[in-house]
# Entry
Amino acid sequence: MPRQRLRELGITIGEFPPGPYNAITDVPGILVGHTTLIYDAPRVARTGVTVISARHGDIYRDQCYGAYHSFNGNGEMTGVHWLEESGLIGAPIAITNTHQVGVVRDALVTYETQKYADSQWLLPIVAETYDGWLNDINGFHVTQEDVFAALGNAQSGPVAEGNVGGGTGMMCHWFKGGIGTSSRQVTLPAGDYTVGALVQANYGTRRHLRVDGVSVGQLIDTDKVPSPRPTHKPDGSIIVIVATDAPLLPQQCKRLAQRATVGLARVGGTGYNGSGDIFLAFATGNHVPLDTATPVPIHMLPNQQMDQLFDATAEAVEESILNALCAAETMTGFQGHTAHALPLDELQRIMRAHRSIVGA
# Structure
């Protein structure tokens, strides 16, 4: 069966409608780009880098408010100390593998300083998950040129998912994982807004996997679809990026980032000791010019209108993870290790059976 997104399989979750692309790029001005590295010589590469940029790429001069939340901190996200202090994001965000955070971070600095001649200072945000089971991670495959390529091909519209970019070598709930995205549209008294999410999913155990509340992981045991590892430890990581065009302040962005935990929990993520579950949310509804000398006019969504954004965030994160699982293809990589794709025909069969029982 060809790989399809969750809704293409006839499985719809949540209450809010998705945007036109059902992707983080439904938030106006958001661009996503990937560089995917798959080769076997001179060393095995199953890795890459994914970039997310706001303001159509001009985030350096027109910054936005943001915040992060660490659900479990066995992972890395650079730049968060200044983010916590200032509440501002002023560069593209990138996600890659654990051992290449440094080179990706340095590449973002180089790219921005070359693009803006007056740039003298930058602390970009780069996050990671570990792909060392499928990727020869000590081969250090990702280069500055690969980061530049991802920035160069970043675009709005549909987003490639599964075995792409930073998610190329990732696994999720003992299936092949990777990049996934989704969005939700909400109507509030203050206006109409979009919430989008993008995940790099590399976490979880088989028995915990749930789809719309159905314990799918317990119904597809390792006799049907083998585990990637003979003894799979309950660890792994997930990075979640949430974006919205609502006019939120940094503390409100933090509240949004915290709700990514709800979406993760619905699919079956617990946040184990060995997991790096780090979430970032940013809002483009306010404009903060880099070098303004006058007070910046700011709008704030009333807190009592945040509830629907919380719900939309949980739904978008939940579906993003499931889209990553649905899009990812079986992959064999480092030392012959194989991560099998979630069988979509079996997923459909399980969901049909469950819904027929519920509807009886």
